[in-house]
Amino acid sequence: MGLGDRHQKKDVEAALRRAEACGLKVKHDRNGHRWGYVVCCPCDNKYVRVYCTPRSTGDEAKKIDDFTKHHRGCA
Ligand SMILES: [Zn+2]
To answer: Is residue 2 part of a domain?
Structure first.
């Protein structure tokens, strides 16, 4: 990810960094309320959507962390 690809909500940004640290791909592809995706390439590109302004940043971060936990061993 380059500069400018940071999520504006720090809880969510931290979860995205954790996902990257585990070898998952963070894809910034903004479209409406969507911020982008976290992708597990070895798993046939399974992904989870990330939203720009989730109702709960804690829940959004947990969703990303759950995906990371599930896919951390794939790469
Ligand atoms: Zn996976």
So the answer is: no
Model confidence pLDDT, tens digit, residues 24-67: 999 999 999 999 999 999 999 999 999 999 999 999 999 999 99
Predicted confidence at residue 6, as pLDDT, reads 93
**53 assigned to some structural domain:** yes
How many Å lie between the centroid of ligand 1 and the Cα of residue 24? 8
Span from the CA of 44 to the centroid of ligand 1 (angstroms): 8
d(C-alpha 44, C-alpha 7), whole Å: 25
Cα(6) to centroid(ligand 1), Å: 23
| Structural domain count of the chain | 1
